[in-house]
């Protein structure tokens, strides 16, 4: 089973690395990072570089796509190379998935037309404008269409565990969860807009503005 995770300038690191850490635990799953070209790509704050080991053209028919998000997804919405690759890959995948604003790319490629989808809460209106219907759920599945979308950043871990269940079985997913000791017990309960108070939202938006 071959999973590909695209990288692009200004991707969000955990969007890619979270699912990677889950999926690569399964012996029958191989993960490759792909991009416009081989080589290093810097994250959304430019502090972290990761390496693409293949170009899109080298892997046209992966078994699974996990498209991460990040501020750099906006530039991909009119990138014909990426959008054509997504469309063509989806014709052959077992599942095409996204994390955070990776859903915007799936939507721009026409894969989410009329479907509910998850993305980062700040991108809800943009996702709707691309033909999908935003929902605040953490993971949204459309199994007949072979599409799964996850909300912001950390939700990619949840999505990847569900993906392991679908690709292998529930015991494999539980084993992967144990291997990464994924047992969240955060000290705060402000991980969604519905739970965060006004001061927390204001601080988050301030930080977003300063980083992007």
From TrEMBL:
Domain of life: Bacteria
Domain DJ-1/PfpI, first and last residues per copy: 2-165
Pfam families according to UniProt: DJ-1_PfpI
InterPro entries: Class_I_gatase-like, DJ-1/PfpI, INH-QAR
Protein name listed in UniProt: DJ-1/PfpI family protein
């Amino acid at each position: 089973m071959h999973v590909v995770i695209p990288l692009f300038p200004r991707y969000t690191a955990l969007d890619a690395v979270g699912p990677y850490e889950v999926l690569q635990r399964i012996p029958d799953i191989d993960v490759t990072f792909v991009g416009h070209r081989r080589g290093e790509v810097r994250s959304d704050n430019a502090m972290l570089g990761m390496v693409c080991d293949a170009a899109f053209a080298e892997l046209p028919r992966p078994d699974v796509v996990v498209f991460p998000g990040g501020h750099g997804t906006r530039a991909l919405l009119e990138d014909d190379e990426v959008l054509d690759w997504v469309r063509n890959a989806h014709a052959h995948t077992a599942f095409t998935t996204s994390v955070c604003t990776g859903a915007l790319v799936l939507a721009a490629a026409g894969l989410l037309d009329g479907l509910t989808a998850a993305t980062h809460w700040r991108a809800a209106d943009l996702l709707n404008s691309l033909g999908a219907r935003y929902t605040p759920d953490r993971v949204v599945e459309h199994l007949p269409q072979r599409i799964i979308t996850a909300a912001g950043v950390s939700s990619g871990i949840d999505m990847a565990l569900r993906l392991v269940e679908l690709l292998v079985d529930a015991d494999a997913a539980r084993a992967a969860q144990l291997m990464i000791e994924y047992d969240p017990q955060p000290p705060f309960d402000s991980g969604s807009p519905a739970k965060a108070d006004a001061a927390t939202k204001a601080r988050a938006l301030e930080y977003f503005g300063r980083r992007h």
